[in-house]
Amino acid sequence: MVASLDGIIAKKDNSVSWFETTDNYDKGVSGEDPEAFLKTIDCYIMGARTYEHALELSKTYGWAYGETPTIVVTNKKFPNNKSNIEFYAGDLNQLVTDQLKPKYQHVWLAGGASLAKDFIRLKLADEIRISILPIILGEGTVFLDQIGEEQKLHLKDVTAYKNGMVELCYEIIKDLGNSSK
């Protein structure tokens, strides 16, 4: 997920101009090769609003998810002209057990906030990777507000980039009640 410092992942008008930063952090590293990273993802999951937004952006920038299988979790009916996109309405545990685990190793939940919270609440997510951009937006869609319960995390990695973005990668600790962790 990409967020502002105040945890906003989408402006009210859904504009993405705030993704561009002119900040410069001398100690930062250059960005990782996005093509190499994207090749590690073998399936995307997204909600209806993220899908609608991706469709709108694709008119200008092209479909960002390429030919990678994409599952849109929604009750809405959408036209579909791509063979790699399917729609799912139902139990998320069943989606993970029946469709994702048997076929994919690296599933990326592309958005949105409520779907991400559902995956975290249901203990279906393994990690949270969030890129914080050097901006405070002040209003919009908050990523992890009102998640409803405490969730322990383990910092797996942190990277500061030359453009001022900081990427945090947390493993979600799945406390089974009897573990020593």
What are the defining features of this structure?
alpha/beta; 181 residues; 4-stranded parallel sheet; Dihydrofolate Reductase, subunit A
Short description:
By secondary structure, the chain is an alpha/beta fold. Helices cover 23% and strands 27% of the residues. The strands form three sheets. Strands 1-7-10-9 form a four-stranded mixed sheet, with no helix packed on it. It has a four-stranded parallel sheet with strand order 5-4-3-6. Strands 2-8 form a two-stranded antiparallel ribbon.
In words, what does this structure look like?
Helices cover 23% and strands 27% of the residues. The strands form 3 sheets. A 4-stranded mixed sheet has the order 1-7-10-9, with no helix packed on it. Strands 5-4-3-6 form a 4-stranded parallel sheet. A two-stranded antiparallel sheet has the order 2-8. By secondary structure, the chain is an alpha/beta fold. Strand 3, helix 2 and strand 4 (70-73) form a beta-alpha-beta unit. It has a single domain (2-172), classed as Dihydrofolate Reductase, subunit A, CATH 3.40.430.
Q: Give the strand tally.
A: 10
Number of domains: 1
| CATH fold-level assignment | Dihydrofolate Reductase, subunit A
Main β-sheet, spatial strand arrangement: 1-7-10-9
Tally of alpha and pi helices:
4
Poorly predicted segments: none
Terminal CA distance: 26 Å
Helix content bin: 10-25%
Query: Rough shape?
Result: globular
Mean pLDDT across every amino acid position: 89
Order of helices and strands: EEHEHEEHEHEEEE
Helix-and-strand structural type: alpha/beta
Strand content: 25-35%
CATH H-level superfamily: Dihydrofolate Reductase, subunit A
CATH architecture: 3-Layer(aba) Sandwich
Report the radius of gyration as a whole number of Å. 17 Å
**Largest β-sheet summary:** 4 strands, mixed
The CATH first-level class comes to: Alpha Beta
